[in-house]
């Protein structure tokens, strides 16, 4: 299956990044959201991020313009019907995702590949609710999409080889690298990363180290570019907690028990950078540890 046109559903943080990288790689992109404001915001963000690439001389002004011209937006989901590939990047709620695929299905070509960017919902279960489980895959981009090199490709139990190979080719054409993961909770990256972050929160909770000493230790002692608590603030503490809960419930092993201190930060609404407070307070000039 030769993919030329891509329909992206959901124009949030991930959807705008996905539209950005596909348009830059030469695909015609239709971006859909239920909110017209989200679509306007997404186009603004894509423009700003492309400008940054121009100023860093990664792309030319003409390439930026051509990429912008390849993106069209719509609040009508069925406008995406003619796409060769659908990438669903809407809100992380199973009923939302299932409804999107159900509404789209009657308008699609039989060859269209369906994918979801979900971080935690079973690909096999989502696929089983569509008319083409063999042409359904998890297509898990990392945040921020234009910057991160990796894409996880997750096969559901029914996904066929042709679909997998088509998506491998697509990932290559984006200049990114694919890792294949089986369809188990949190796939590969989050399965390994989140328990590490959770353990850092336990280390803080038990008083083994302060926010600063934990982050410094992992930066200077393990050569991580960011400390685990700083990274948790960047990802969003609510997202970290949600993924730990998916691991805990999905694998039924107490080693994935979310740290009570992580729960407490989320209860306080201290979700990290997006709310200006988490393990660090971002309201001043420089981030100040909150513990
Ligand atoms: N944020 C991350 O770091 C990250 C990383 C990898 C994967 N993901 C996954 O990507 C998906 C999107 O996450 P996000 O962070 O971009 O969320 P977000 O909240 O920034 O954006 C979601 C968008 O979906 C739209 N939406 C909701 N229902 C819709 C519908 N029925 N049709 C069309 N649009 C609809 C919302 O209006 C919103 O603009 C989720 O499945 C999430 O698990 C997120």
From TrEMBL:
GO annotation, biological process: fatty acid metabolic process
Domain of life: Bacteria
Residue(s) at site: Important for catalytic activity: 140
Domain 3-hydroxyacyl-CoA dehydrogenase NAD binding as annotated: residue spans: 5-183
Keyword NAD tagged: yes
Keyword Transcription found: no
Amino acids binding NAD(+): 10-15, 33, 92, 97, 119, 143, 274
Start and end residues of each 3-hydroxyacyl-CoA dehydrogenase C-terminal domain: 187-282
GO molecular function, one term: NAD+ binding
Membership in a protein family: Belongs to the 3-hydroxyacyl-CoA dehydrogenase family.
Protein name per UniProt: 3-hydroxyacyl-CoA dehydrogenase
Source species: Rhodovulum kholense
